[in-house]
Amino acid sequence: MPNEQAVPPELQQAFSAYQAAGNKDPELNQVNELLDKLGERGLVLSNYAYREIFKAGERGYRLTKYLAQPENFDAAKKLFDLGEEDEEKNQAEVKRQLAWVDRHGYGVEYQRPLNSTDKYLEKRRKEIREGLRRR
């Protein structure tokens, strides 16, 4: 019987969230192809970095998608070149790049903030549709 290590439940939940985010993405095949091309170039992530990306769940998928883009090769190379030696460096770099992706909203649909006028008009449209108000 192969040597199976117990996977912590929080990591299993995070990996499920990562997979769910990937399954929702209509561009999943393109992302996989781009990741394969990174592998062909000799860029391989360390296990520490994989673990940290999976722990991030949906955010981790957005980071993966960001790193897979050809125009973001420099950011990918910085993370991929760290190697297996230093766990803390790997985790710190993944967290730094996750923070960048979050801060810049990569892979997130833009929603304009509503001001008080927009909220009033939305409420009014809803009431007209429901027949509570006339035009």
Structural account:
The protein starts with 8 loop residues before the first helix and ends in a 5-residue tail after the last helix. The chain has 135 residues and is mostly helical. The longest helix is centred in the C-terminal third of the chain and has 18 residues, at 87-104. The protein contains seven helices and no strands. The chain has one domain (9-130).
Q: Averaged pLDDT, please?
A: 79
Q: Report the radius of gyration as a whole number of Å.
A: 21 Å
Estimate nothing, just give the exact number of structural domains: 1
Percent strand: under 5%
Biggest sheet overview: none
**How many H/I helical runs?**
7
Please identify the structural class as seen in this structure. mainly alpha
Helix content: 55-70%
Give the termini distance in whole angstroms: 73 Å
- What overall form do the CA principal axes indicate? elongated
Query: What is the H-and-E element order?
Result: HHHHHHH
Give the low-confidence spans.
none
Secondary structure tally: strands: 0
Task: Looking at this protein, list some descriptive labels.
single chain; 135 residues; mainly alpha; 0% strand
SSE topology sketch:
Blueprint: H1 9-24, H2 28-40, H3 47-55, H4 58-68, H5 73-80, H6 87-104, H7 116-130
Brief overview:
The chain has seven helices and no strands. It has helices spanning 9-24, 28-40, 47-55, 58-68, 73-80, 87-104, 116-130.
